[in-house]
Amino acid sequence: MTFRVLAGLAAALTLAAPVAAQETTPRWAFAIHGGAGVIERADLSPEQDAAYRASLSRALEAGAAILRDGGSSLDAIQAAIQIMEDDPLFNAGRGAVFTAEGRNELDAAVMNGRDLSAGAVAGLTTTRHPIAAARAVMENSPHVMLIGQGADTFAASQGLEQVDPSYFFTERRWRGLENFLRERNLPIPSRPAGAPAAGMASLEPAPPLNERKFGTVGAVALDQSGTLAAGTSTGGTTGKRWGRVGDVPVLGAGTYASNRDGCAVSATGDGEFYIRATVARDICTRIAAGASSEDAGQAEVDDALSLGGYGGVIVVDGNGVPGFAMTTSGMYRGAVTSSEPARVAIYADEQ
Ligand code: ASP
Q1: Is the per-residue pLDDT at 8 higher than 80?
Q2: Residues with active-site annotation
């Protein structure tokens, strides 16, 4: 899929980093997503549409600046994802969806394609930036995946910022939980300790009418040393129960990167299906066999859909070619390379 170029942003980036006219293979590449789902033009007001695009552009540029300066793909991914974790528009970090018990339980993963090292966390409740915790697991622990309180304790021991669980609260996601539980005749828990009083709701932007979307965030990158990396961060799915964990921290499902295969993948969608379809790993297998990043991505999201799961993926291949694929009407997304200006898009049909 090609995208409409945002002329203003492209001009700004061109000023910051002149593009070599003769460059054919990008020296670096970067792509992000902010979740896929039923995102129709009628769902977003012009202000909401603009807010999402501005937010995506900010995260995209944060990662691009690092790659342009010769920084690592891991640093680029972490910088962009932390911005989106701090942004209540997305279902990651602050703004995460709620469990049926009225808690925010956060999952994240990161993978380094150079040596297939990886770190994942699930069910965090106090670590402000779950992606930083995943990276600390990868770099400073003998393990690959940590869960629950132990994962938060490890993150704190690594000096990562801890917050009161109410930090993650947003009125919009609370109302999403209330609607979800009401539709299923499930009990609605009391508002979490430390959450603002219900009357403060009007201070937050109104949610899009249709909440059937995911809002997970992710990033994939190729840096100038040729290293691919992928990262993903999420609050999971509204109303999840019993310690549910989705595809995001399951390596090979929602997140995967391999220099050997020449791919980095971050997914968003119905985690239960993305796990079973091993979406991210299979995209890498397809790319290693010669498929383009976009064709490999589309084949795998279609495969997940054949099981019943909707969603989308972002991919960067070893040649720095970004690809996007989805089985939904939209995915918040953006891409930039050393030879192509930044572009962001929301709806599936955007050129
Ligand atoms: N894939 C995530 C999960 O199942 C949800 C999302 O993409 O927003 O946890």
Answers
A1: no
A2: 216
